[in-house]
Amino acid sequence: MNAPRAEGYDLILRRQWPWFLFLAAGLAMLARRNFLLFHTLVELFVVLVGVLMAVVVWNTRVLTRNHFFTYLASGNFWIALIELVHMLAYKGMPTLAGASGLLASQLWILARYGEALLLLTAPWFLVRPCGPRMNLLFGLLTLLGLTTIFSDLFPVTFVEGMGVTLFKSLSELIIMAILGVSVGILHRMRHLLDVRLFTLLVGSILLSILAGAAFTFYIDVYGISNMVGHLAKLASVWLLFEAVVLTMLREPFRALARGASSFDAIPDPVVLLDARGIVRQANCAAVALARRLDLEWTGASSHALLHPQLEKQTGCPICHHIAAGAPLPVSEFFLPHNKEWWEITLTRVQADDPTQGMIQMARNITRRKEDEARLRATEEHTRWLASLFSMSADLTAILDDSMTFLAANKSYQDHFAPTGELVEGRTLWEVHGTKWYDQVLRPHMERALAGETVRFQTCHPSRMGSLWVDMIYQPILGARGKVNYIIKQGRNITQLKKTENDLAEAERFNRRVLATLGEGVIVLDRDLRYQLWNEFMYHVSGKTAQEVLGRHPDEIFPFLRPAGIMACMERALAGEEVITGAIRVEAPPPFPSNWISAHFSPLRSADGTIQGVVGFIQDISERVGNEESLRQSQALLDSIVEHVPAMIFLKEARDLTFVLFNRTGERLLGYDRAELLGKSVEDLFPPDQAKFYTTKDRETLSSHAVVEIPEEPIRTRAGEERSIRTFKTGLYDAQGNATHLLGISVDITDMKRSEEEKQRLQEQALRSAQLATLGILSAGIAHEINNPNNAIAVNANLLQGVWRDAQIILEEYQAEHGDFSLGGLPCAEMMREAPRLLTSLTENSRRIKATIDNMKHLARKEDDQAMQRLDPREVIQRSRSILQHTIAKRTRHFHLDLATERLMIRGNPRQLEQVFLNLLMNALQSLPDEQHGVTLSMRQATGRVIVEIADQGQGMTPEVLARVGEPFFTTRTCEGGLGLGVAIIRQILDRHHATLTYTSQPGEGTRATLAFTAMEEEEEDAS
C-alpha cells in the first residue's frame, strides 16, 4: 500500500470517525429534546453535502475527467434540492405552507427513489462519458416529481396516527432491493475502482439500506425509528462525501482503479503540478524518490524534486517552462549532488489550457549513460570483429556480459532485427522478446555466462517466419577468467529439418495407413517370401508379422496351394493381374473362419523389372453371410407377400406403373400378373376411377406418411363393382426422393353388405320394440289417467252449475254488504274470472283425454271420422291461452303473426291443439333466459297453409336434428322427458296429411314449419 493512499484515506478516517461518532451521539441527544431541530440539522448537512459535491466535481472535472463522479454529483445536486424541500415541509416547520407528515414523507420517498436509481445507473459511467445534458435531464425529472406531489398525483405515503401506508413500506423495500442490486453491480465492476473508494461507496449504500429499513416501520414522524433512520442517512452521506469530495480534492488520479493502477505502475517518478509548480499528486516512484532525497512531496515546490539547480530556482529551465505553462520536450539533466543523469518532460494537463497545471515525468538514465560510455570505449575493439563476420551466411552476433548486442552480421539483422532498426545497443530480450528469452534463451545464456560453450537446436521465430537454427554460444574470457563477450553463431537448418520431418511424417503416415487399412496388404519377393504383412492380416489368419516375414506361404498356410491361391501368386510373379473369387480360410482358434477374396499384382521396379508380388486381401465373410441372409429373407418375404389375404402392389414413383403384384390381387381383379406388371391404372380401369387412384397416389408420395382410404370402389375385369379399404405409403431414397409406392388393399364388399344388413335389422328390431313399448305405455297411462281425469270432468261440470246458482246469491250479498274477498280476490274480479277458470278446467280435462287417445293410437291407424273443417287461428289462440302462464314465465318477447284472411283446413281440433301445445312448449323450454323470444306465424302458400314456430333458443346439432321424432329420443332426460312428444305429433300430422320440418343451428335457435293442405272454397261449400 503506497504512502499517498495511507495519508489520503487511513489517516483521515482514523481522525474523523471519532468526531463523527461524537457528533452522532450529540444529535441523538438533541433528537430526544427537539426532534425538529435534529431533523433540520441532519437534512441541512445532506443538502450542503449534495451542493458541495456538485460544486467540487464540476469544477475539477476537466482535471480528473471522471465521468462516474460527474454523474453522481449531478444527480445528488437535484436530490439535495428535493431534500431541502423535504426539510422545509417537515411537520412543525413554519417555512412552508401545508407542511405535514404526509408531504414530508412523499418528498422523502421521491428523494429515496432518485438516490437508488442514481446509484444503480452510476456504474454505467465508469466506462462511458457523462455530458452536461445529463444535468438538464436530472432537473427535468426533479421538476416532474415535485409537480406530481404538489398536484396531489403522488400516492399517499403516511397517515397521521396510523403510520406509513402500504405504498410507503413497499417503496422502501423496492428501494432497498434496488440499492442491493447496485451493490452487486459495483462489486462486479470493482476492478474499475480504487479499493478504498469501492469500500466507501458500498458502505454508503449499505447505510442507506439501513436507513430505509428504519423508515419502513415508524408511526410517529418524531419517533425513535425516524431518528435511527436519519442518523444512518447522515452516516451514509458522510461516507459518500468522503468518497467523492475528499477523493476528488486529495487524489484525483486515484479515484478510478484504472487511473490508480496506471499511475502507480509507471516505474519512473511522475508528479502533478499546479500552475505555480506546487506538487499536488505523486506516484509511488516519485514518493520513493522524495524520501530518498529526504524531502516532503505534498505541497512542496517541484524545484526540490529532480531539478538540476537545487539552490537557485530562478535559473532553472524546468521551472521557467512550468511558470510559462509551456510543455518541455525530452531533456537530459545532470544532478551533481548524487551524480545521476535524469531525463525530464513536462506536459499540460489540458492541452489547450495552461492554467490547469502540468505533469512532470522523470526517468533515471544514469545506467544508460554509463553503458553508452562503455560502448564508446569498446567501439574500436568491436570494429575489427564486425568486419570478420559481416558477410558470413551464418547468423552471427556478439553480446557483452549484460546480454547487449555489440554487433550482428547482415544475416542476423535480416532475420531478427525489427524493420528499419539495428540490433546493436539493444538487449537480447528486446530483440527476441521477453517471453522467448525467458522460455528458451535464458538457460542457455546463463550457462554461457558461466563460461560453458553451449550448443542446441531450436525453432526460432524471425521476421521471415519460423526457422530451425543450430545455435552455438561461445564465451570469450578476459584476463581474469571473467566472461566479457559471447559470440552467438547459428546455422540455418530449416530445410534440413523440413526434409527430416517430411520423411518421418511420411513413414508414420504409411505405417498408420497400413495399420488402419480395412483390407490386408502383403508383399512377397521374387522367391515368394513374405516381406510385408499388415495388421489386418493378423485378424484374418491369426498370424503376426514376426511369424510370417521371410517365410514361404507353403511353410505356413498349406491350404493355399490346394485352394489355387499359390497358382494366382505365381501368375502375378509372371506379370499377370489376378483376382480370385470367394475363398474360405480356416484360421486357428480363437480366430473365426473367414471368407476372403484376393487381388495379386506384379511389383515392378523403376525400370519395369518384376521384383515380387503385392497382394490385397479383403474379408468378405460379412458380405457372403449377408448375401445368404438376403436370399433367405427374400424367399420368406416372397412367400409372405403371396399368401397374405390382401392385395399387395408396388408401383414406380415416376410413372405409377405396377412392378409387383401378389396372388390375392390377381384373384381380386381377375387379371394375370403378367397382364398387370408394367401397366398403370389408366390401362386397367375406367377414367373416373383411374383419375381417383392417380390423385391419391400422388398425394401419398408427397405426404411422406401412411395414407388410409377407408373405402374406394374398384371394377374387376368381369365388370363387378367391389369396395376395398387401402393403405398406401411412399418408399424413399437417402435423399428423401420417392422411388416406389407400396399399397395394401382389403376387399370389404361382403363385410360392408353384412354391416348394412345388420344395421337394417337392428333398426327394425328397435322400431318394433319401441312401438310395443309405446303400446304398453299407452294402455297403462290411459288406465292410470282416465279415471281421475273423468272425475275432474264430472266435477268441473258440476261446479259450473253450482257457480251459476251461487252467482245470484253472491251478487245479492255484494249489493247488500259491499265488496268482499273470495279465495284472496275481490268478489267483482272473481265474478269475472270464475266462469273462465271453470271453462279452462273442462277444456284441459278434454285435452288430457285427447292426449291419452293420441298415445293409444300411436301404433295404429286412426280413421278420420273426427276430421272437420276448421280455422287454425282459433286452435292457435286456444293453445296460447292455455300456455299463457308458461309464456309469461319463460319470455318477455312472444309474438303472434297470424294471417288476417280466413284460411281453412281439414283436421281434428283437439289433436291439432295438442300439436301446437307441444311445439310451443318445446320452443319455450329451449330459451336460455327471458330476453330471448318465440314467434308463431301463419301464412298461405300455393295450396298450403304454413304455420311456423321460431325460437331464439339453444338450437340443435346436426346429430340431434337427424334423430328428432324418434320415439323415446330426448335431450331432456334429466328434466323427465320421454321423447314421445314429436313422435306423437308426427303420427297426428300423418293423419292430417301434413308435414313437419325443422331447421336449426347450435346457438341460433330452431324453426319448426308445419304445412297443411288448404281447403278450397268449393270444398268449404260442400262441407
Topology:
Blueprint: H1 3-33, H2 35-64, H3 67-88, H4 101-121, H5 133-150, E1 158-159, E2 163-164, H6 166-188, H7 195-216, H8 224-250, H9 257-265, E3 270-273, E4 279-282, H10 284-292, H11 317-324, E5 328-335, E6 340-350, E7 353-364, H12 366-389, E8 395-400, E9 405-408, H13 410-416, H14 428-432, H15 434-449, E10 454-460, E11 467-477, E12 483-492, H16 494-516, E13 520-525, E14 530-533, H17 535-541, H18 545-548, H19 553-556, H20 565-573, E15 578-579, E16 583-585, E17 594-604, E18 610-619, H21 621-643, E19 647-652, E20 658-661, H22 663-669, H23 673-676, H24 687-703, E21 707-715, E22 721-732, E23 738-747, H25 749-817, E24 821-822, E25 825-826, H26 827-856, E26 868-870, H27 872-882, H28 884-890, E27 894-897, E28 905-907, H29 909-925, E29 934-941, E30 944-951, H30 958-963, H31 981-991, E31 995-1001, E32 1005-1013, H32 1017-1022
Parallel strand pairs: 27-29
Antiparallel strand pairs: 1-2, 3-4, 3-7, 5-6, 6-7, 8-9, 8-12, 10-11, 11-12, 13-14, 13-18, 15-17, 16-17, 17-18, 19-20, 19-23, 21-22, 22-23, 24-25, 26-28, 29-30, 30-32, 31-32
